[in-house]
Amino acid sequence: MNNVEMRRFAGKQWRKNFLTFFAAFILLLAVYLGIAIAFSFVLSPSLVLTLSSLQEGIQYGLNLSISGILLALFLCVLLLYLVITSFSFLYMALKLTRGETITPFDIFYTLNLKNFPMQRSLIGYTFLYLILPWGLNALFIFFFGFSMKNPVLNFLEEAAFHIAIGTFLLFYLCVPFLILERKAVSLKDAMQKSVAMMQKEWKHFLRQVLFFLAIRLGANLLASMWSYILDNSSFPDMLLSAFYVLYLSPCFILVQAKFYQEILKKQEILGRAETQEPEEGREAEEERNVVMVSETEEERNVVAEQEALFQPEEVRAESQ
């Protein structure tokens, strides 16, 4: 399956299972709100509707107050929840590539404690996945500040962020799938296997990365310019986020899962060919041995007949 067919497959599966993905996303948010409501009885009701209190929570956490410590704990729980459950979308996409049906409750697959220590490996992978992009964002913030009103700077930041992620995926695309399928004993083992699997395939996946990167950067540039024209209105950013969450990201996840599945198929075919070659060699050797034995017997019969012809008549008569 080539790159275009993979994207068509992703688009078809997205249209077919959009409601399931959307319901899973709603379930994810519902549990998030449930956690927030539970903590808000102790802390602040504003936590139910916003994550903007992150900076405030860190400041409170630095204070040795009970509320600050609880708030820091709350933010840590929410962050871990969002990180771990986000990998369930990869699991759902992988099921679709294999012709299996999905349900909204598959979103909780990675939260199942029976899969431990899978969660630990996924958290470690997330850290490695984001360390370089976050580092680049930190540099932009250091030099240009938090509120960059220039669309060009926003575009450059977005480009640097996603180029870093795309480069990382060229080598470690298979890591989360190997972890989800328990085909790796640890994160290190999954990364080594992923590098080996992508060694001959990264050039093909680079085209997918460039395709989705072009769409993402183009949409980001249009939204930034629109927001700049509207005097920094947040409406274009809201539309852009909806486009990312509801369409572009699910399609890219489906492409990743399909690409991983195609690699597995190639390895399976190659493995069959390697096992068949020795068997075919043994069969050919056995056939050659049978032919040699038959030829030897024929030669012996011919020699016996020739010797019989040259024997005296008296000897032939006695033998008869």
Describe this protein's structure.
There is one protein chain. This protein has 320 residues and is mainly α. The protein has two domains: 1-111, no CATH class; 112-255, no CATH class. The protein is 79% helix and 0% strand. It has helices at residues 3-16, 18-40, 54-62, 66-86, 88-97, 118-144, 151-172, 175-180, 187-198, 202-229, 235-309, 313-319. It is globular and about 105 Å long. Mean pLDDT is 81; it is low at 60-64.
What attributes does this structure have?
320 residues; mainly alpha; 2 domains
Write down the overall geometry.
globular
Fraction in beta strands: under 5%
End-to-end separation:
75 Å
Low-confidence stretches: 60-64
SS element count, helices: 12
Topology:
Layout: H1 3-16, H2 18-40, H3 54-62, H4 66-86, H5 88-97, H6 118-144, H7 151-172, H8 175-180, H9 187-198, H10 202-229, H11 235-309, H12 313-319
Question: Quick summary of this structure?
Answer:
With 320 residues, this protein is mostly helical. It folds into two domains: 1-111, no CATH class; 112-255, no CATH class.
